[in-house]
């Protein structure tokens, strides 16, 4: 049996990027003490700020971002693969990207991914989001290697678009990361079922590190970071929205086993209509 020790970091990021980087560093250190060789942090690790008038004054260009230097140093210090689930970064005076950054154990930046699907929704009760107003969507699916396995990169709202996960799995993804900042209403209703569905459909491990609790900017996020195996079983879960760490040992043979038992990835057919 081939195993991989992993960990998810659950955060409650605020409106000061440097404070958030320090909070993440302490939680990653805790994850490493638990034996993790691959650690995933949530969406918006460096900043949770809904007010656009404040947002861009706190963002950095990718080549100047202290979060990139900080997470590179954290990965190098601990000798781990570290996925900064997403960092908000400025690409123009009034335009940003929501970007995952994967760091290798030597601190080098191994891969990036820009969130493709923008969270533009109205949940009722005055809770609305328009991510596309400030953020440029990505256009490319990303599959990379980390800790000797194939890792697919996605972010939060992407989880509702099954075709992206199927594309990653058919390209060879064994693990798929879903760093998130789910709202409480959608988290309560859909978080678990969506994560388990994506795992079952793809025969992949799903690593969903989350933001949780009441944030400085007034946002409320669901938490409940979760790891789901390729058969749809919840391997580990935080049953709360407080900051914390979730460690687990993944049996990588389970990926091939699930895909052999139900080879759905090989059974796609072209259909016509409606």
Give the secondary structure arrangement, pairings included.
Blueprint: E1 3-10, H1 17-33, E2 38-40, H2 52-58, H3 66-78, E3 81-92, E4 95-103, E5 109-114, E6 120-122, E7 128-130, H4 131-134, E8 142-146, E9 149-153, H5 162-170, E10 175-177, H6 184-202, E11 205-208, E12 212-214, E13 220-222, E14 226-228, E15 234-237, E16 244-251, H7 253-261
Parallel strand pairs: 1-2, 2-3, 9-10, 10-11
Antiparallel strand pairs: 1-16, 3-4, 4-5, 6-7, 8-9, 11-14, 12-13, 14-15
Helix pairs in contact: 1-3
Name some characteristics of this structure.
274 residues; 16 strands; alpha/beta; six-stranded mixed sheet
Summarize this entry quickly.
The chain has helices at 17-33, 52-58, 66-78, 131-134, 162-170, 184-202, 253-261, and strands spanning 3-10, 38-40, 81-92, 95-103, 109-114, 120-122, 128-130, 142-146, 149-153, 175-177, 205-208, 212-214, 220-222, 226-228, 234-237, 244-251.
Describe this structure in words.
With 274 residues, this protein is of the alpha/beta class. The protein has 7 helices and 16 strands. The chain has helices spanning 17-33, 52-58, 66-78, 131-134, 162-170, 184-202, 253-261; strands at 3-10, 38-40, 81-92, 95-103, 109-114, 120-122, 128-130, 142-146, 149-153, 175-177, 205-208, 212-214, 220-222, 226-228, 234-237, 244-251. The strands form 4 sheets. Strands 5-4-3-2-1-16 form a 6-stranded mixed β-sheet. Strands 8-9-10-11-14-15 form a 6-stranded mixed β-sheet, covered by helices on one side. Helix 1 (17-33) runs parallel beside helix 3 (66-78). The longest helix has 19 residues, at 184-202. It is globular.
